[in-house]
Amino acid sequence: MTTLTAAELPALARGAAVLGTGGGGDPHIGRLLAEQALRVHGAVEIVSVDDLPDDACVLPVAMMGAPTVMVEKLPSADQIAIAVQTLAKYVGKTPTHIACIEAGGVNSTVPVIAAAQLGLPLVDGDGMGRAFPELQMVLPTLSGIEATPMSIVDEKGNRGVFDTISNQWAERLARSATVDMGCSAIVSLYAMTGAEARESFVPGTLSQCVALGQAIDDARRSLADPVAAVVDRLGGRLLHVGKVVDVQRRTTTGFARGDATVDGLDESLGRLLVLRFQNEHLVAEIDGAAVATTPDLIIVLDSESGEPITTEALRYGHRVSVLAAPADERWHSPAGIDLVGPRYFGYDLDPIRALEVV
């Protein structure tokens, strides 16, 4: 892609929700906000990671908080651009590019809004290749890039800047502020140069999102299997097909936490799958045994339409297909596993790769 228009947004939002592994916010809400911004300000220029100048000033922007809250508590029209402007003013630099820090439903479209409002190009890449629940959980952390200074802005106009001693402290302090701001806020963080973005970003994420969204749509139009189209596109595998029979979900400490149970149908008949999530799906278990874990992607799709289903949208009766797909290989380094592996989230498990036969 070289430009992003409103015509690509449905595919972008759908594909971002696939990569978001249940988290990253509601894709429909993000799409509507981005469509409005593009109607007012025009198309956004897309720049590949490889084409970034070494001295570019890249400012990622995202929504932080519990996806369950984001569904009802939308950002104000100017909140997103204000977060970028607040950080730029604090660091004393003029931003040259906007970027996504994670691939997720709303967090792949929030940067589109900022880029449109500010008239800046948007980087075709992100800091994860998927979504994770805590702000230190990005590949730039593994590259030694600091999350702060970071700005945080709520819909009322309150704004602040954190400058912390570590990325983990940035998460801790910003999470507390986000809870006080109503469990959702806009943040701009991980200010970096073009050279740093080339080293630490997953390239081509926005293009991948659009391709995924289009693959689902194309499969439906041709009466093919949209779930199989996603499996093929991501090089993943189908774990389970069934009906959601129970969802236990709660919003605590700024996260949507819980689990969902899927009773097997068709080829999965007689098996029971349980998904464990904290904003994103982190562990998938079949009949009590883990079959896929973070850092690889665990994705829930509507079995018929192929539409991705976020953790806040999972409901009793949903007919779903659960997939696993490989994450960026850097997440499987020892430092990556320490940052986002199952044990970090409290599961007494070694990582199980998406393509591992259990």
Task: Give a verbal description of the structure.
The chain is an alpha+beta fold and 358 residues long. The protein folds into 2 domains: 203 residues, CV3147-like domain (CV3147-like fold); 122 residues, CV3147-like (Beta Barrel), CATH 2.40.390.10. The chain is built from 11 helices and 17 strands. A hairpin with a 7-residue loop joins strand 12 and strand 13. Pfam families: S-Me-THD_C, S-Me-THD_N. This is DUF917 domain-containing protein.
Write the layout of secondary structure elements.
Layout: E1 3-4, H1 9-19, H2 27-41, E2 44-48, E3 57-65, H3 67-70, H4 79-91, E4 97-99, H5 110-118, E5 122-126, H6 139-142, E6 150-153, E7 159-162, H7 167-180, E8 184-188, E9 192-193, H8 194-200, E10 202-203, H9 205-221, H10 226-234, E11 237-252, E12 255-264, E13 272-278, E14 280-286, E15 289-293, E16 297-302, E17 319-325, H11 334-340
Parallel strand pairs: 2-5, 3-4
Antiparallel strand pairs: 1-2, 3-8, 3-9, 5-10, 6-7, 6-8, 11-12, 11-17, 12-13, 13-14, 14-15, 16-17
Helix pairs in contact: 1-2, 1-9, 2-5, 9-10
Pfam families: S-Me-THD_C, S-Me-THD_N
Domain S-Me-THD-like C-terminal: 166-350
Domain S-Me-THD N-terminal: 8-163
